[in-house]
Write a structure and sequence with these properties.
The protein is mainly alpha-helical. Helices cover about 65% and strands about 10% of the residues. It has 2 domains: about 50 residues, no CATH class; about 90 residues, no CATH class.
């Protein structure tokens, strides 16, 4: 019969074990914390080099490719909505049928290239839903700009 004292002793023994353990040996939380901070410090330089590239603007050719792909994906998902099996496929694979998910920073670049001014300001960190036909119209306009630039 277990008494409350035996349970308390079992918990105290358990608390003496390392908080985190791996297959090869024990790793304490403090060691893990030190490793994490070292990794963060080591990667600051790498992050400083990658972030400007990741958030820099796309060329017209890259924008054209982006809107070609995502516009066609959105159109395909909309066409799938017209059949029962297509709707089932969309439920499993597509979140917003008929819409392309476009980051705000991409819309801002297109807005600057096209000299368009919409009624609302686009937030670069927000993802917007762009109807498939509008995405394909932007693609066609970018293609015209690409052809005229060549």
């Amino acid at each position: 019969m277990n008494t409350g004292l035996e349970d308390l002793l079992a918990i105290q023994k358990l608390q003496l074990l390392p908080a985190l353990r791996n297959v090869d040996g024990t790793v304490s939380v403090q060691e893990l914390d030190n490793r994490w901070h070292k990794l963060v410090e080591d990667n600051k330089d790498l992050r400083a080099r990658i972030e400007p590239l990741a958030f820099s603007g796309m060329t017209i050719k890259e924008l054209h490719l982006f809107f070609s792909r995502f516009g066609l994906f959105a159109l395909q998902s909309w066409n799938n909505e017209q059949t029962v099996f297509g709707r089932i496929k969309n439920r499993l694979t597509v979140r917003f049928p008929g819409y392309a998910q476009v980051p705000g920073r991409v819309l801002l670049q297109v807005q600057k290239l096209s000299d368009l001014s919409s009624g609302e300001d686009k937030v670069p960190s927000t993802t917007y839903l762009l109807r498939a036909d509008v995405a394909l119209e932007i693609r066609d306009e970018l293609k015209l700009q690409l052809e005229s630039a060549e």
